[in-house]
Amino acid sequence: MHPRPSAAPLQRAWGIRRKAGGRIYLIMKIEILTLFPEMCEAVLGESIVGRARKQGLVQLRARNIRDYTPDKHRRVDDAPFGGGYGMVMQCQPIADCFRALCEEWGERPRLVYLSPQGKTLTQAKAKELAGLPSLALLCGHYEGVDERVIEALVDEEISIGDYVLTGGELPALVLCDCITRLLPGVLAADAAFANESHYDGLLEYPQYTRPAVWEGREVPEVLLNGNHALQEKWRREQMEERTRRKRPEMLS
Ligand code: 9D3
Fold first, then answer.
1. How close is the Cα of 118 to the center of ligand 1, in Å?
2. Domain enclosing residue 228, as ranges
C-alpha cells in the first residue's frame, strides 16, 4: 500500500466507517440546527434517507438551538430593534450551538442558512454539497435571524423556491434528502446510473406494472411484446414528446 500523507486530516474531517472485510468508507455528516429537532428526526428516520442512515452511509442529526440558551425561560428570540411585527432569533444561542458542533467534530463544517433570500436550490448545488465532508444547516423561525450572526458565521444562503413557508426545517430536510440520495451506496447502482445517463435533461418515460388492463385502460402494446430494442426506442420517443409538451423550456 502507498502511504497517503493526507490520511489523518481526511479521517478527522469525514466520519469513518469500517465494514467487514477491512474496507473503510467515508461518511458525510449533516447536522440541522433547529428549534424543532423532533420534526427533523421524524423525516430523517423514514424511507431511503432513514435506510441510508441506519446503514451508516450518512450521519444525519438535528441539534436543538434552545439547548444553548442560558435564559431561565429558555428564550431564544426577542422583539426587533426599531419595532415591527414578530420576534427575531438571537445571535448567542445560534452561535453557541454551531460552535459546540465545531468543537465536537473537530472541524468547521460549511454553514448553510435556509432562507427565502438564498439562491434557489438546484441539482448542481446538491451535487456540490454532496462532495463535502460535513455540513451544518441553520433553520430560521419567527420573523428571521439577527443579521449579525448571519454575517459572522453563515457561508451560504439557500432557498428551495419562491413561495413562503413558516420556517427553514422543511427546506433543510429537502436538502438532506437530495444530498443523501447522491451519496455512494445509497441508491441501487442502476438507479444511480439512470440519473447520470444520456437521458439526463429529459422527463422520464411513463411506467406501468401489473395488471395489463386496469378499469379498461391497457398498458401500451410495445411494452408487452418483449422486443427490447423497440421498447427502448418507444421510451426515448415518450421522453422527448413529454418534455416538449410538459416542460418545453427544458429543451431550449
Ligand atoms: C417577515 C417577512 N417574511 C418575508 C416574506 C420573512 C420570512 C422569513 C422566514 C418569511 C418566511 C420565512 C420562513 N421561510 C424559511 O425560513 C425558508 C424558505 C421559504 O419560506 N421558502 C423557500 N425556501 C425557504 S428556505 C427557508
1. 10
2. 195-252
